[in-house]
Amino acid sequence: MTTSIEGAPAGLVVADEQAAAVHFLVDEELYPLPAIYGAAYVFIDRCYVFLDRPEPARVRVVLTAKSGAAAPEALRALIGEFANELLSCAFRHQIAQDNRVLIETATMQALAGAMGQPSLDDLAKFDFRDQGFDDPLGIAMSWEEKHGRKSPKPESEGAP
Amino acid sequence: MSDVHELRFSRQLYSGEAVDQAVKAFARFAAFDLEQTEDHWVVRMRPSDPNLARRLRGELGNHALGLTVQRGGAK
């Protein structure tokens, strides 16, 4: 027999006291799959965790007490702690996504620095024609190039 | 003779190699039969000790999930 859990969204969390299990329907748009994996992995040593996908973009998480018996309060605590862990994992996943470019850049620079100075052969092979960056505002131009007096244009023949 | 218990692991959530590896890890506690459908890895098990069935189901599921997470997901 299944019952809803007090304080949990109706229809998303269902307790099965006979099986000592609680079912939690997670929306993947709110909690990405890596976050669901992360939270589930944390709970593996505390209970039996089973994942299923009853419909697209939804993951059903089933947490079952290892002892085989659990009071309603224990199930409520279990799903509450899982929800907290899920939120934490989702937030950490978002931070990792936001900082991925920064982390990769720092790692690349660290690895490049560890490789040491380029050799003469490396310099000889370097393609200097490759433009390092675009400079549409002329920031990298010298003052003379940008503001210096322009040389007079040669007068064309036959001009009045 | 003990009952047959069926576990259906979603192919979108569980790695097939992880499920195989989990089944191998518990092979001495039950007889297993594996099948794959379009959406699921289906594991049918007949525990050597019927009293262990519930625990075996749970531990097998945890093992398959743990290995899947360690592999970085189902794909």
Q: Secondary-structure blueprint of this entry?
A:
The complex is a heterodimer of chains A (160) and B (75).
Chain A: E1 2-4, E2 13-16, E3 21-27, H1 33-43, E4 47-55, E5 58-65, H2 72-98, H3 100-114, H4 120-125, H5 143-147
Antiparallel strand pairs in A: 1-2, 2-3, 3-5, 4-5
Helix pairs in contact in A: 1-2
Chain B: E1 5-10, H1 16-25, E2 30-36, E3 40-47, H2 53-70
Antiparallel strand pairs in B: 1-3, 2-3
Helix pairs in contact in B: 1-2
Summarize the structure.
The complex is a heterodimer of chains A (160) and B (75). With 160 residues, chain A is an alpha+beta fold.
Structural write-up:
The complex is a heterodimer of chains A (160) and B (75). With 160 residues, chain A is an alpha+beta fold. Chain A has a domain at 2-100: Gyrase A, domain 2 (2-Layer Sandwich). Helices cover 40% and strands 19% of the residues of chain A. Chain A has a five-stranded antiparallel β-sheet, with helices on one face. The longest helix of chain A is centred in the middle third of the chain and has 27 residues, at 72-98. Chain A is elongated, with a radius of gyration of 31 Å. Chain A starts with a strand and ends in a 13-residue tail after the last helix. The longest helix of chain B has 18 residues, at 53-70. In chain B, a hairpin with a 3-residue loop joins strand 2 (30-36) and strand 3 (40-47). In chain B, 37% of the residues lie in helices and 28% in strands. Chain B has helices spanning 16-25, 53-70; strands at 5-10, 30-36, 40-47. The N and C termini of chain B lie far apart (37 Å). In chain B, strands 1-3-2 form a three-stranded antiparallel β-sheet, covered by helices on one side. Chain B is of the alpha+beta class and 75 residues long. Chain B has a single domain (5-70), classed as Alpha-Beta Plaits, CATH 3.30.70. Chain B is built from two helices and three strands, in the order βαββα. Classes of the chains: A alpha+beta (160), B alpha+beta (75). At the A-B interface, helix 1 and strand 4 of A face helix 2 of B.
